[in-house]
């Protein structure tokens, strides 16, 4: 039988190498836990072994965390609690082996991997960009369940530990050393030798592992070393979690309680609370949805974007970007970070220079945060070449057009650049609304044309929506999808239509917010109801952020395509006509400071709205019903019409592209959670009041009649 663990002895030091067969990274599987138990017995029984080094056989990964597939077998909180208790007991055994254990860390040390390292007496990490440490469990609606909430505060201090546990913050190797999370930094080439040497010295008593949290400062010691100070820390941490999550994510609060239990009731109480809370969180609705998103994004990493058989993607060795504005510069920025040479074109040198400056600004920020070195900054910035002509575009295997949302302009750009390009080059438009088939009307080679809809700001937003027409060649699609993944994006492929998927569903949501303004609902009430539901910002704030003028153009395109159902509200139309642009113009629905900081609602905007300053009271649940159901229904229409390839893509696109609350899983997961029957009843009731706006999508009606679901109730989260 192939095993994950191997043991070599070097002068009395057991070097245990973890190399999970058939996997790109090491994960804490049931099989690996069983092997560790046997290995611990073997080491404890061998009197010639005086120390242990835990190393990885993977290129850039130590242990990347738990095997999430295992969570699918859990049926009750008791099952999950037992899993946690087993992990705690295994690492307690590692901690009490009776000899020093050194963790030799290179690459990702995450979740259960970091918990394993915390149970070791000494931790050595490589000073390498790929060496990162984190406890990311709350991102899956879970908490660390193998002692992480108990050991980490004792090692690095309460406040730093809470920051890591409650936010899933990733710590790079040098920062980990500075905060005492690791004891030593070394070059990867000497990691094994140094680890063996330290294990030997620890066994001989010639080296003491650092145990006190490093550099906490006077304030840190005053707060953390007495019960009154700790009570303040816990209270502030709880307030911070609630302010950030609106109470929608229970896992951070559960983790906080587990940490607090040890300080207030002792070691055993802390471990019991951690296991109990892990069991409760693993079975929570929030965790079920977040785990679904994990599986969905993992599946998309393997999705070529076309039906089998899929051709091999063409390598993108040079990228051409037309338009050096905010989006074009953003695309260039993420491209150079993946070592792609970029030709960045605009109509004059001033615009080109501003685009390159925008690239530099993002790279400078990464440099200041020590995410890249000065040499990397210079190398990446040097990959951007500015131009006012199409010189160099003949070498581009992919060209992305990012000019204004004007069809005539997009046609002109395509006609200009296409003769310069190689016949196999892919031409992509970054449009957010205009159908790709309309843009491709100007092409000599329409089979090479598709859409690549990036989201703003490009270097932060994780989604890329690739839009294909019936004419788009398969190899063009797979090449665009593969390159999107290379840029670090989660990629969904949708079929061509006005507004595609994300813009169309978001517009339905925003339109309802505008109609609520028509009815006299206050701006703060609308935004507050939707942020309480889980959206990162309310729809009115979002319109200010995107740009009221941009929203107006999008609304016009979708109104032309879909008629009265997508007609902009009177309120939105009047505000667009007033010339307010939102945050970028420092005047929109809200007031903004000179630095762009959002302040209070601009009360003068009510003078433009149908009901003026006289606002009416509407229950938050009714506000949510209008906006959320409009979005959900439009997502279902996109599935009906074949714009979406699957509910999975619709859910991922809504969460990662337009801010649908992750803990609700996405529009289709939300329908399953609420029940299609109830969703249809609510839509029909609204449609009776507002004819034509809420007619249920056919797929929702069919699911309601058949008591069907978009996803199976049990088992794997993807159909």
Describe it for me?
The structure is a single chain. This protein is α/β, with parallel strands linked by helices and 719 residues long. It folds into 3 domains: 5-283, 2-enoyl-CoA Hydratase, Chain A, domain 1 (Alpha-Beta Complex), CATH 3.90.226; 319-501, Rossmann fold, CATH 3.40.50; 503-642 and 645-706, N-(1-d-carboxylethyl)-l-norvaline Dehydrogenase, domain 2. The protein is 48% helix and 12% strand. It contains 28 helices and 20 strands. Strands 13-12-11-14-15-16-17-18 form an 8-stranded mixed beta sheet, sandwiched between helices. The protein has a 6-stranded mixed beta sheet with strand order 1-2-3-5-7-10, sandwiched between helices. β19 and β20 form a beta hairpin.
**CA radius of gyration:** 28 Å
Number of strands: 20
- Supply the number of structural domains: 3
Q: What is the class of the largest domain in the CATH system?
A: Alpha Beta
Shape: globular
**Weakly predicted, low-confidence segments:** none
Average pLDDT, rounded to a whole number, is 93
Report the helical percentage: 40-55%
CATH topology description of the largest domain: 2-enoyl-CoA Hydratase, Chain A, domain 1
Q: Work out the strand percent.
A: 5-15%
Strands ordered across the widest β-sheet: 13-12-11-14-15-16-17-18
